[in-house]
Amino acid sequence: MRRILSVSVVAVAVPVLFPTVGLAQTIIPAMTVSSVQVDFENMALGATDVAAINAVHPGANLGRITSVGSLAALGNYSTGFALGRALALDPNGSGGLFIVDPGGNFGGGNGYSISLGMVSTQIGLSIADFNGTKNVDFFLGPALVGTTTVSGSGGPVVTFYELRGGFDRVEINGTPNYVIPEIWVQVPAPASLSLLALGGLALARRRR
């Protein structure tokens, strides 16, 4: 069973180099922008990378997903709190990405850095099989633009975030040994894609 969790939110000042408007970060019930659900249940078991994740989820266009912080002892994805296959770290200790089934072992670690393919205003995160508190930090370039915490006691916690000033990277860190069953990432709206296509067509015509 998924839970939508209320969390505390702290806005962070942003350097002039990356100006933003409306840094009020909020929790929302669901994505309200064009988005792709990255469901790791669709992935093959074992070692993986962002290219494979994007190939299975067309349009997601994730940039990078890497571990942050120190690696920890092996974890085991509890079947009692499972939400299907999930993204974790390699149980062999390489720090690479790994798809794990409920009941399987995975590499322990403190956190993940998720780089997005575009400046976004919303994201959804499902975090499972953890106890304690995680920090969720939002970045625009190198600038920290928002931070919050999420707490859990085993079961999956699904939270949708909105930061209207925009962000292009999210870091999750805190107590070690947890998995990520799903991520919802913002994608360009269909109208934006049409405008880009028209712009490209016009440019091609001018070059003839």
Task: Please tell me about this protein's structure.
With 208 residues, the protein is mostly beta strands. It has one domain. The protein is 12% helix and 51% strand. Strands 1, 2, 3, 5, 8, 9, 10, 11 and 12 form a 9-stranded antiparallel sheet that branches. Strands 4-7-6 form a 3-stranded antiparallel sheet. Strand 6 and strand 7 form a beta hairpin. The termini are far apart. The N terminus is likely disordered.
Q: Strand pairing plus helix content: what structural class? A: mainly beta
- How much strand? over 45%
The biggest beta sheet is recorded as:
9 strands, antiparallel
Task: Give the distance, in angstroms, between the N- and C-terminal Cα atoms.
Answer: 58 Å
Averaged pLDDT: 81
List the helices and strands in order: EEEEHEEEEEEEEH
Annotation keywords:
208 residues; three-stranded antiparallel beta sheet
Write the layout of secondary structure elements.
Elements: E1 9-11, E2 25-28, E3 35-39, E4 46-48, H1 50-56, E5 64-76, E6 86-89, E7 97-100, E8 105-128, E9 131-140, E10 143-153, E11 157-174, E12 179-186, H2 190-207
Antiparallel strand pairs: 1-10, 2-11, 3-12, 4-7, 5-8, 6-7, 8-11, 8-12, 9-10, 9-11
